[in-house]
Amino acid sequence: MFDAIFKNFALHINLDESEVERISAVLQVRDVPKHTLLLQAGTTARNVYYVVSGCLRLFYSDENGDEHNISFSPENWWAVDITSFSMQKPAFMSIDALEDTTVCYLTYDAMEQLYQEVPKLERFFRILTQNGLYVYQRRTISNLSETAESRYKRFRKRYPNLELRITQKHIASYLGITPVFLSMLRKRM
Questions:
Q1: Could you tell me which residue ranges the Cyclic nucleotide-binding domain spans (predicted)?
Q2: How far is CA 164 from the centre of its chain?
Q3: 3.40.50.10190, 1.10.10.60, 2.60.120.10, 3.20.20.70: which CATH number matches 1-124?
Q4: Domain boundaries, the chain
Q5: Residue 36 and residue 44: Cα distance in Å, rounded?
């Protein structure tokens, strides 16, 4: 079960056997049914999730109750409201399972302890956070300056085949367009 997450760690750090054992001792696994909230806005993020199978979404609900998808986390991706998790403050966003999903996760307390015992892990999550910030900045610029068609092409490149697994409504929300307009884009392309 932990093979996938340790392959993900190996993208940025080399763990020795004792470090793998220490992390494995606190890693937890959870099967999450479709439409289950792992994090509700207003509560504090206590876990950081790694998706083994399935797909999660990070989203914001506005004052009218409209949901705005911020990101998707299919297999081999991480999901967290990083501000809530790192500062242990109420979350601005929610995390929901778009499919039946299996996650590995670390609690906030376990992470803080691991940072002391396995310093390489702090480096891994620093790199992950830096990469995430880069993606969010690029996405913000894209939303401000690119056409809907260009944003849709970027979505398809970033999340290959995900559009076959999730609803058009969720993709449209992510792109900042209506499902009807997304349908028109698909027909044109």
A1: 11-123
A2: 18
A3: 2.60.120.10
A4: 1-124, 141-189
A5: 17
Per-residue pLDDT tens, the chain, 189 aa: give them.
799 999 999 999 999 999 999 999 999 999 999 999 999 999 999 999 999 999 999 999 999 999 999 999 999 999 999 999 999 999 999 999 999 999 999 999 999 999 999 999 999 999 999 999 999 899 999 989 999 999 999 999 999 999 999 999 999 999 999 999 999 999 888
